Each structure stands twice: as C-alpha cells, then as structure tokens.
Amino acid sequence: MTSVNAENKKTIGSVIKAIEIMDLLTASEDELGATEISHRLNLNVSGTYHILNTLKACNIIEQNYKTKKYRLGLKLWKIGKKAREQNQLALFMKPYLKELRNLTNETANLTILDHGEIVYIAQEESDRLVKMFTKIGAKAPLFCSGAGKVLLAFQPKEKQRNLIDGIVFHKFTDKTIANAAALQQELEKIQQKGYAYDDEEREYGVSCIAAPIFDFDNEVIAAMSISGPTSRFHRENTRKWTEEILQLTARISSELGYKGELNRIYRKKDS
C-alpha cells in the first residue's frame, strides 16, 4: 500500500485515499466491491463511493455492470505504457546524450511533447562549474524554449495549430516570442533549417540549441538540446555545436528507421 509521510502537510487526503484504492485493486486478483474496499482500507463507506465514482468517471477504474464490483481501467494501462515508453526512450538516448555532452561540454537534454509543454526525460550534465541543470520531469513552455519550438515546428499542421491556439504567451524576457503570428514565422524558419535556438527567450543569460529526433513513422518523437550560459554560445561555438547536434540527431533518427529528407532537414547552418 501507499505510504505517506505524516509530516508532509501538503498532501490531499482524498487523493491519498484514491491512490490507496488503486493500489488495492492492483494487488487484488479479483474485482472488489465498494464495501469490501472501505473495510480493507478502513475508509468511510460513503466517502469510498464518492472516490470510486470519481475514478470511474475519469476511466481510471471500471465497474462490472453485473456484480457492481470494481477493477482497474484501461486508462491506467495506457498511462503505464506511456511511462514505460518514456523510460525506454531515455535509456536508449543516454549514450547519445553523453556523446553530445562530451562534444560540447555543455549540459545535454532530451525532451518530449506532453499536453502542450515539453518535459525533460533525460539529461547529462556538463562538467563545468557554471552549467545548466533541469530536474527530470520538469516542464517548460513550447514558445520560448529551443526544444519546444523544434517539437512544435515538426508537428502535423492541424496538431500544430491546436497547440499554438492553446498557448498563453508571456514575456519572460524582451526576447520572448509574444504572439502566435511571430511564433508561426519562427516555426517556418525552423522547418527549413532543421534546428532551433533559444537566445535568452525564457531567462537572461541562458541559451540553447535544439534539434528534432524522428522515428520510423517519420514523426518527431523527441528533441535533443544543449543548454548553457549565453556567454559561451558565441558565434564560433554556436556554429560548431549546431553542426554537431544536427549530425548526431540525424544518426539517431536513421537508427530509429527515419526515412525522411535528412539532407534537407539536417543540413549545416549556412550563415
């Protein structure tokens, strides 16, 4: 069963109870009724019904219409499948992240698209004293991060429009893209070049170079990026690092079965 530190005052009791119910259903080989669940977990019967109805409405659990008993729902399986896929992707990319980190001596990141934001799923930190670091699982906006813009640029048009429509623009710095029209122009440039920069768009003093990774379905599945202090992202380093990250992501995409126009998408920066 789920164990919660009693000293953690930021927890929500009903959420904890819901997780305990899911844990119980996970451990049980049989479907369980509401009364049995409440007795096993020492919960109020009425409160148990409310939680079960909420979980059922969210498709987290299912109810047998004949016996009225409960079991785990398909949505949890989908969540688990997604988590496994992310873990597998992070493990697969780990050697490449290390390679990119060693090539540039800047922090290398792997991000994916998740509900209108990017999520960091893997990272290899720079060995430098002054470096960038982001917690695994942290999220960032699409419109003001190199990885976010790359992931957005290579989405199917309809999905891209829907994602842009859902963005609430906010000026983090004077370099932040402020509206959908400006973002669309930037995305068109990224599609042509095959990479994106974040030049202090979210935080002053921080820069990033990002490129997409494609799979055998010719879909963008992740973005690989490097991030570090803007002072180190001068013209010479930026040109060199851009070429290195493009060559690496092209190799990864090929190994994943991508059959798209690598020469066009991953060509070197021409100016």
TrEMBL record:
Domain HTH iclR-type, residue spans: 12-74
Keywords: DNA-binding, Transcription, Transcription regulation
GO molecular function list: DNA binding; DNA-binding transcription factor activity
InterPro entries given in the database record: ArsR-like_HTH, GAF-like_dom_sf, HTH_MetabolicPath_Reg, Tscrpt_reg_IclR_C, Tscrpt_reg_IclR_N, WH-like_DNA-bd_sf, WH_DNA-bd_sf
IclR-ED domain sequence ranges: 75-258
Biological process annotations from GO: negative regulation of DNA-templated transcription
Name of the protein in question: Transcriptional regulator, IclR family
